[in-house]
Amino acid sequence: MIVAANSPTIRVISAEDFGVRLLLGHEATVVCVAVSPDGSFAASGCRGGWVRIWSLRRMQCIAAAQGHDGSVAAISWTSRVAPFARGDRASHWIISAGADGSVKRWDVFEPIAHEDDVSSLASSEPQLSEIDCVASEPAHSKGINAVSVSPNDRVIAVAS
What we know:
The chain is mostly beta strands. The chain has one domain: 7 Propeller (Methylamine Dehydrogenase, Chain H). It contains one helix and 13 strands, in the order E-E-E-E-E-E-E-E-E-E-H-E-E-E. The strands form four sheets. A four-stranded antiparallel β-sheet has the order 4-5-6-7, with no helix packed on it. Strands 8-9-10-11 form a four-stranded antiparallel β-sheet, with no helix packed on it. A three-stranded antiparallel β-sheet has the order 1-2-3, with no helix packed on it.
């Protein structure tokens, strides 16, 4: 279970023993969080307009970008890996929505060292991903509070 509760800290709670581990990196209150379909990554958004990508294996922030004017109020992963790659790195899509009324699509390129590479996990340096905002659309005149992506990734639903 992942909990964002009115602070910059995200809590990852083990379903097995209820042990708590912390994801630290946001400076503003975290408003939304979503787990990737394979459970390896989390995406979060905060009141400062930042989107962060976290490795749940390493418990580290691996990418961050600011793109919204104001709070990122909702975030969602698409179901599938995007149909293109940069070198040997696959791309995932994240959809974010915010207080500025916009919906953004982010391409998140996996780190060069893959998460299942034991030697890269032993390193103290995080393996950084790339995150690029590749599409932005004004969707509402007011802030958006929810976003959902259909299982086939063809429909994005937002609510204000």
